[in-house]
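Exam revision sheet. Question 4 asks you to relate a sequence to its structure. Input first:
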Amino acid sequence: MDDATRRAIEWDCTKLINRYTLLNDAADWEAVAALYTEDGQMTRPSAPDQPIVGRDAILAAFKSRPARAQRHVISNVVVDVVSETEATAFCIIVLYQGTASADGGLPVRDPSGPLIGTYADRLRKTAEGWRFAERRGGLDFAP
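Answer key, structure tokens:
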């Protein structure tokens, strides 16, 4: 594989990670679930030993969460290309959460946050483009 192909894969995978974050914060659960392969697996940073398997199950898990104000910040994204159809990635996540304000203005940030953790990803190129085959979250500090 030449350098240009490797860099293109790294960029496509980084873009996938960033898109996931934006869609998650927008609560666009259908679009978030569509970023997984049909047999994809997800473990939330707060529940790393409880994998959710399959795109439909991932969608159901997101839809079952209570509504909340949230903002994820992703940094230190490193993508390692395995082949032209497989890659792995790692990144740091910071999650701010809050509740609706009484006056309808900006949400009120949860004073116990933020949560800080990681995602370790297995990525696969499909007919739909790059998708998460596995997204494994973990926390670095106790909530």
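Marking note for examiners. The chain has a mean pLDDT of 95.
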